[in-house]
Amino acid sequence: GNSVTQMEGPVTLSEEAFLTINCTYTATGYPSLFWYVQYPGEGLQLLLKATKADDKGSNKGFEATYRKETTSFHLEKGSVQVSDSAVYFCALSDREGSNYKLTFGKGTLLTVNP
Amino acid sequence: DAMVIQNPRYQVTQFGKPVTLSCSQTLNHNVMYWYQQKSSQAPKLLFHYYDKDFNNEADTPDNFQSRRPNTSFCFLDIRSPGLGDAAMYLCAIQGDFTDTQYFGPGTRLTVL
């Protein structure tokens, strides 16, 4: 079956530091890959996605590249801000019958200090 | 503008007292999902609708039911909430020609 393994947190950084959150996946098909962000007390917001090998998703300074050879989709940001403090979920979407099913990693809590 | 609206944002119920959570969408997408998310965990899929077709996950307890009276609205009914059902409940929609799910803000359920 499909699975997603992401870096365990919590991750604590100072403002303007470089961020990497590792994510690797196992899938039987050709999934799309996602990063979702969840701010305290809120739902999940789509941060970025990539649908095929070598695609790069990017949004709000965050980037991730779909690497089929290493089955990875690591999230990076060059300079984090306090407002980036949140839980980040890596996920893959694969077709299952009439719909697509999301498989999530366990989430990584990021705290950015001023 | 919000695509997925969940009401209420916070719900308190008593042990064993039925409760209904509401989700609506502004885009008339065919697929709607309900997830349960407990503290410090990833969301767990309870069930989904493809149009009017209801699809239950194998491990979703019978205590959880759902209704979708029309394309825009979907309800989650918890028939007899237990303390273990306290969680954030997330509704999501999926576009007709995409595999991307968009989530609502969630309803935080407290069971006393």
What do these coordinates show?
The complex is a heterodimer of chains A (114) and B (112). Helices cover 0% and strands 55% of the residues of chain A. Chain A has 114 residues and is an all-beta fold. In chain A, strands 2, 5, 6, 10, 11 and 12 form a six-stranded mixed beta sheet that branches. Chain A has a four-stranded antiparallel beta sheet with strand order 3-9-8-7, with no helix packed on it. Chain A starts with a strand and ends with a strand. The mean pLDDT of chain A is 94. Chain B has 112 residues and is an all-beta fold. In chain B, the strands form two sheets. In chain B, strands 2, 4, 5, 6, 9, 10 and 11 form a seven-stranded mixed beta sheet that branches. Chain B has a four-stranded antiparallel beta sheet with strand order 1-3-8-7, with no helix packed on it. In chain B, a hairpin with a 6-residue loop joins strand 9 and strand 10 (101-103). The N and C termini of chain B lie far apart (34 Å).
Keywords:
heterodimer, A: 114 residues, mainly beta, 6-stranded mixed β-sheet, 4-stranded antiparallel β-sheet, 12 strands, B: 112 residues, 7-stranded mixed β-sheet, 53% strand
Helix-strand category of chain B: mainly beta
Low-confidence stretches of chain B are: none
Distance N to C terminus of chain B: 34 Å
Q: What is the first-to-last residue Cα distance of chain A? A: 41 Å
Hey, which two chains have the biggest interface?
A-B, 24 and 25 residues
- Residue-averaged pLDDT of chain B, rounded? 94
| Count of alpha/pi helices of chain A | 0
Put simply, the count of helices of chain B is 0
Query: How do the SSEs of chain B run, as a string of H and E?
Result: EEEEEEEEEEE
Shape of chain A: globular
Radius of gyration of chain B: 13 Å
